[in-house]
Specification:
alpha+beta; 13 strands; 3 helices; five-stranded antiparallel β-sheet; single chain; about 20% helix; about 230 residues; six-stranded antiparallel β-sheet
Amino acid sequence: MSFPSLILFLSLWVSLMSPACSLTCTSEKLPDSKKTFFNCTDLPTLNATLHYTYDSFNSTLSVAFVAAPASPEGWTAWAINPSETGMVGAQALLALKSNGSLLVKKYNISSYFLLEETDKLAFDVWDLKVEYGTSGKYVIYASLKVPWSVEKPYHVWQVGADAANGRPEKHDMAPENLSSRAELQLAASPTFPGPAPADGTNSGSRRDVFICSLVGLLWFSLQLCSEFAEMI
């Protein structure tokens, strides 16, 4: 391969790999370093991310939902809708401040106008907690039992600006708020989780960080090669 061809090849490779390195969830460190997840996705709206592992053996989904509220006194929520594709029918986990403390509550969203706090959702939930993340974000952790019949549930996420008396107020009706839903591909998750990495990143993160570091090194080498080519 000639020198100009090598430079062209490296340029194409770096350009193809660079978009993957712009993702945030793969390098995102969760505040609970003991928790690790096989998958993560940068959700398409509201600057939110979801880390998750699905154990098909016992139909258990473990998640960490990361998002910032619309204001410092606002709220964030993540939900599974086992039967519909939108907000109505969603079983939600909602984080907010109440009397200065950060809490996570369970809600059954039975209609667009009725938000019911409940002790029990349509499926079992355990290991439920919320912590402060970086840059004012809330991190909601939970494990839940997904019905066997639900292979591709829809999940819904949302943020709001106000929570009065420990109760969330309505969220904005902007396009990104109204489109904050997607199908969650459970079957893509491995069956059994492995040990947690010592640095708190998810199990796929270290590979992705290595790849992005390699891209950066190749980009630097490409710049040197280009300068060298101009000299000869």
